[in-house]
């Protein structure tokens, strides 16, 4: 398409119905602010000029929307007088003269590029105003689309709708494409004579028709146009987003036994033939290479899992966990900011933090890297082919050389050279017959108490 386009994102609303200390567009979906999803769809649709209308939490909303590959200029809507008023906050940008003006809402994060392109195509074919609509079983809260003879006559807001109009299930998704040559003129004619006393963007439909122009509605799936006004809707949107992303991953070659129990983040990357068992949560920043297995009830965030590695069940990988090829992090283990070498095993009830574990090293059950002295964090370095006996504490900063062996139950406070054995515990003593003597004494004491 050679036509120029400006997208105006409305994100200045008060978010009253969210009952939140922050703007709703900052609330996360798939682990990142809603507004960032909207911007991504614009980028996917090939749009590079974006005007962002901000009000509440202006600075945070602007920085959540920003990204490296496009320019976004922010405009402050100082008073929240409605969506029609909000678009005009970006008057200066619109006045630069674009072929197409696209208006999108910051609280509609499931939108994809497809309907935006369809709307622009209709503008290119000569329509003046194109509204993206959707059919829904529960239209409450949405503006209703009044269509006759294939033309959009008007959009009626819920509060202004008659009983008959309220029964319409074809709704305004909040996305609109406007002929750029007429946009400022049409927007300038919007008034506020309605129940809420707001300037409704939706009035533009009747305005354009009154001036002899044309308006149509094009339908898109409900799952792309759900708006978020309160937290119940936020949860519904999250559910739709998760379902969509799981589907994409499964189709790309990832196995999930119970996909509805797996939760993904916007940037989760999972390779082919990875198996994900039930109840796994991915926070932001996780990459999993092909053939890895993520067993049930694991939680991963900011971590990398190399090919063939296995995680869990019940493992927690925190930011900076980097698992080498074919390594294992097993049940009830926590790994943070640590490199686990290829083929190394961290199998049971262990904490590895701020550490390097060499290739093929075995970390016994209950090992703890004591990385924190209450003030600073310190590093533990364990070489390749080492063996850390169960229930050992490695008090950082400390290092264990290649091939070294740490006896179980050790508290290691000094560096262990390669191929050395470190004992960090009291030696065992045997007292023959002593248990019997003690037992008889305790029994006598108990009997004496009962008398
Ligand atoms: C709006 C539409 C409704 C549509 C629905 C789709 C209008 C009048 N109504 O209703 O037809 O079905 O979206 O989700 O347009 N905003 C501002 N400044 C303002 C007011 C709002 O920037 O002064 C922003 C909000 O931050 C939000 C968006 O505009 O991102 C929509 O506003 P909202 O109040 O949520 O509109 P709805 O009542 O949902
Ligand atoms: Ca809304």
Task: Write structural notes for this entry.
The chain is of the alpha/beta class and 451 residues long. The chain has two domains: 5-225, Spore Coat Polysaccharide Biosynthesis Protein SpsA, Chain A (Alpha-Beta Complex); 255-422, 3 Solenoid (UDP N-Acetylglucosamine Acyltransferase, domain 1). The chain is 22% helix and 29% strand. It is built from eleven helices and 35 strands. The strands form six sheets. Strands 13, 15, 16, 18, 19, 21, 22, 24, 26, 29 and 32 form an eleven-stranded parallel beta sheet that branches. A ten-stranded parallel beta sheet has the order 12-14-17-20-23-25-27-30-33-35, with no helix packed on it. The structure holds uridine-diphosphate-N-acetylglucosamine (UD1) and calcium ion. Uridine-diphosphate-N-acetylglucosamine binds at residues 10-13, 53, 77, 80-83, 85-86, 105-108, 142-143, 155, 157, 171-174, 200-202, 227, 229.
Element layout with pairings:
Layout: E1 5-11, E2 28-29, E3 32-33, H1 34-44, E4 49-54, H2 58-65, E5 71-76, H3 83-88, H4 91-94, E6 100-105, H5 113-124, E7 129-135, E8 144-148, E9 151-156, H6 163-166, E10 170-179, H7 183-188, H8 204-210, E11 215-219, H9 222-225, H10 231-251, E12 255-256, E13 269-270, E14 275-276, E15 281-282, E16 287-288, E17 293-294, E18 299-300, E19 304-305, E20 310-311, E21 316-317, E22 321-323, E23 328-331, E24 334-340, E25 345-348, E26 351-357, E27 362-363, E28 368-370, E29 380-382, E30 387-388, E31 393-395, E32 398-400, E33 405-406, E34 411-412, E35 421-422, H11 434-450
Residues 107, 227, 229 line the site of calcium ion.
């Amino acid at each position: 398409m050679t036509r120029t386009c400006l997208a105006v994102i409305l994100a200045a609303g008060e978010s009253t119905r969210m009952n939140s200390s922050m703007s709703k567009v900052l609330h996360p979906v798939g682990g990142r602010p809603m507004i960032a999803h909207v911007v991504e769809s614009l980028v996917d649709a090939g749009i590079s000029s974006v005007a962002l209308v901000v009000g509440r939490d202006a600075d945070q909303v602007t920085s959540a929307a920003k990204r490296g590959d496009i320019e976004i200029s922010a405009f402050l809507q100082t008073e929240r007088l409605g969506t029609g008023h909000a678009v005009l906050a970006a008057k200066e940008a619109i006045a630069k003269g674009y072929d197409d003006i696209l208006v999108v809402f910051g609280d509609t994060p499931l939108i994809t590029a497809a309907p935006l392109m369809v709307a622009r195509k209709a503008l290119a074919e000569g329509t003046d105003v194109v509204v993206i609509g959707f059919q829904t079983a529960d239209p409450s809260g949405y503006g209703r689309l009044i269509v006759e003879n294939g033309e959009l006559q008007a959009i009626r807001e819920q509060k202004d709708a008659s009983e008959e109009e309220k029964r319409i299930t074809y709704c305004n998704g909040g996305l609109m494409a406007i002929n750029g040559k007429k946009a400022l003129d049409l927007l300038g004619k919007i008034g506020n004579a309605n129940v809420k006393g707001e300037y409704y963007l939706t009035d533009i439909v009747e305005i354009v028709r009154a001036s002899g122009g044309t308006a149509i509605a094009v339908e898109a799936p409900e799952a792309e146009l759900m708006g978020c006004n309160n937290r119940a809707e936020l949860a519904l949107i999250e559910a739709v987003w998760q379902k969509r992303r799981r589907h994409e991953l499964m189709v790309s070659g990832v196995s999930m036994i119970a996909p509805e129990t797996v939760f993904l983040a916007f940037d989760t990357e999972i390779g082919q033939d990875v198996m994900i068992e039930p109840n796994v949560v991915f926070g932001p920043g996780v990459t999993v290479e092909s053939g890895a297995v993520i067993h049930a009830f694991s939680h991963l965030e900011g971590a990398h899992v190399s090919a063939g590695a296995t995680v869990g069940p019940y493992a927690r990988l925190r930011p900076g966990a980097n698992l080498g090829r074919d390594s294992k992090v097993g049940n009830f283990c926590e790994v943070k900011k640590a490199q686990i070498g290829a083929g190394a095993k961290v199998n049971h009830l262990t904490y590895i933090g701020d550490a390097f574990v060499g290739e093929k090293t075995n970390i016994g059950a209950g090992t703890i890297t004591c990385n924190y002295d209450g003030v600073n964090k310190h590093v533990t370095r364990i070489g390749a082919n080492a063996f850390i006996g169960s229930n050992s504490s490695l008090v950082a900063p400390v290092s264990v050389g290649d091939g070294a062996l740490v006896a179980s139950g050790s508290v290691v406070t000094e560096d262990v050279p390669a191929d050395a054995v470190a004992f960090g515990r009291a030696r065992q003593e045997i007292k023959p017959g002593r248990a019997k003597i003690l037992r008889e004494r305790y029994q006598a004491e108990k009997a004496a108490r009962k008398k």
